[in-house]
Specification:
Number of strands: 2
Shape: globular
Number of helices: 23
Order of helices and strands: HHHHHHHHHHHHHHHHHHHHHEEHH
Strand order of the largest sheet: 1-2
Low-confidence stretches: 511-517
Strand content: under 5%
Structural class: mainly alpha
Helix content: over 70%
Oligomer: single chain
Radius of gyration: 23 Å
Amino acid sequence: MLSPSGGSFPFFCLVVTGVAVAAWALSRLRDPGELPHPAGWTLARRDVGLGGTAVLLGGTVYTAYTVIAVPGLTYATGGFGLYALTYTLLLTPAALIVLPRLHKAARRHGLVTAADLALARHGSHALSLAVVISGLLATMPYLALQVIGLGAALRGMGIDPTSPRVIPGILLVFTLLTAGFLPRGLRVCVRVAAFKAVLMATLLTVALILLLRHGTGGGWVFDEAGQRLAARGMSLAPPAGTGTAYITLALGSVLAQLMYPQVLTVALAARCTDTLRRATLALPLWTIALGVFAYLGFAALAYGIETPAGHAELAAPALLRRLAAPWLAGLLLGGLAVAALLPAAVMAIGMATLVARNIYTEYFNPTATPKHEVRVARFAAPVIISGALVFSFLLQPQDAVNLHLLGGVWIIQTVPAVGCALYTRWFHHRALLVGWAIGMTTGTALTVAHGFDSVVTLEFGHTHLSFYVAFVALVLNLIAAALLTPLLDRAGVMRGPDTFAARGGLPRRGSRFAFRVD
């Protein structure tokens, strides 16, 4: 284990609590008077400008665990870990295809969540519920990983985040997060997103300056890292024979990312479609930043950083601590931990809206007013964050990572019901339900059977090819939906109403305490 560094911890606390208190203070600012409405609390009145959308979208996609896990991947696996950069480069064109069209449909029909879209397009309450289930199951471990990202920064200073002396501090930070972000919803997240962007830029700039001060240019780092990787049987390039795994990991990660509630929430909050498009074009800047983080993983290898077994995510924090003075390391690691607060808040808001709008109002209180929906969402959000805290403290970090891998499998199964629905209504809603069930079941079974490995090897005669397991499950999902759709149509099974074609609002919700099955 890394030895404790008491000189770093006070400065770490200064940054983390400072940003949390700033979020609370920003939440006190007076907003224009308006009646509570989900579009106001969840989507900041659909009025987030270009700058706010750019920093909020990037700050939500690039989470604390992402910027810690990517250098850990390059540290542990070498060139194969660079698939994360390929995925983030592909994310921009994919987002430009999906998100503006989703934004336009949401504006026209008053949609707030992905489940709203499935209900409006296919008229199926059951399909909408399937989207909710996938969103909640996939996002909870993702939210817990933000807590684990905070814990990784603490471990980087040699401090055990599960210590009884440290847990109250973590609880205090997330209490301030709850009090600061959640009462006013997404609009406070917009105000705080700029803090994260500045902190990330400062952290990377200082890290590169520290490396240059120690006289270690990129050539030396890659030479040393290459030699150390070669001793482990790896290299700076992706291993031979992993092309299909590399490509499907990148493509699958893109599709999954675009379906997460937090990403869709930020996209729907943009002022207009053009604002969203221009903000999406700023994502490559965040990819460049992620590339620098990946470089830190190679630098940790070059400097001979040793991490405990199974904790490669500590490579970047350990490197920063070696290169910087204790006070500066504390500030830098504090900035790394702050990266957890913004996406955690947006995830909680997105999940709480799914609970309030697509479960509570849909099945238990269909006459709930918009004010009532907001009240339920405000109650659900801190409960969700509390659940993520308990989840992260009770499970080992690797268990949370394994569940997050399953989360990618689960969330990608909503692509046919949500992503494809933006372009076509050819699929029958019952076929989509069966495809979703097949994808969820086979994806989960394959992941567990292969020891929670994200890559599965399939045999095609004498050929063995490796694929991202979530991508395989999605293909099975689509095949099932495509085969069943013409059969159901020929059998005369009725389809639900298409609100898109009628240009109306969402279908009338079910009766009180009645479970709708379509």
